[in-house]
Automatic annotation (TrEMBL):
GO cellular component: Golgi membrane
Membrane topology designation: Single-pass type I membrane protein
Superkingdom per UniProt: Eukaryota
Compartments (UniProt record): Golgi apparatus membrane
Organism listed in the record: Parnassius apollo
Protein name: Protein kish
Positions of transmembrane segments: 6-24, 54-71
Length: 72
């Protein structure tokens, strides 16, 4: 089943995207900050969400890991 049709998989992909973009921005800030608009601006926006809402993102990652490990 595709991640687009399974809601739990879609949430996992979005959380992984947010965490990956925030992690990569910590190492390469100039690459992320250069592309703030367009399709590549999505990665900049995900990095900003990961930086500013990090306690909420971390909580969601823990809850997602718990649900994948124990409920599925």
């Amino acid at each position: 089943m595709s991640a687009l049709f399974n809601f739990q998989s879609l949430l996992s992909v979005i959380l992984l995207l947010i965490c990956t973009c925030a992690y990569l921005r910590s190492f390469f800030p100039s690459i992320m900050d250069r592309n703030k608009t367009g399709l590549l601006g999505t990665f900049w926006k995900c990095a900003r969400i990961g930086e500013r809402k990090s306690p909420y993102v971390a909580t969601c990652c823990v809850l997602m890991a718990f649900s994948i490990l124990f409920l599925t």
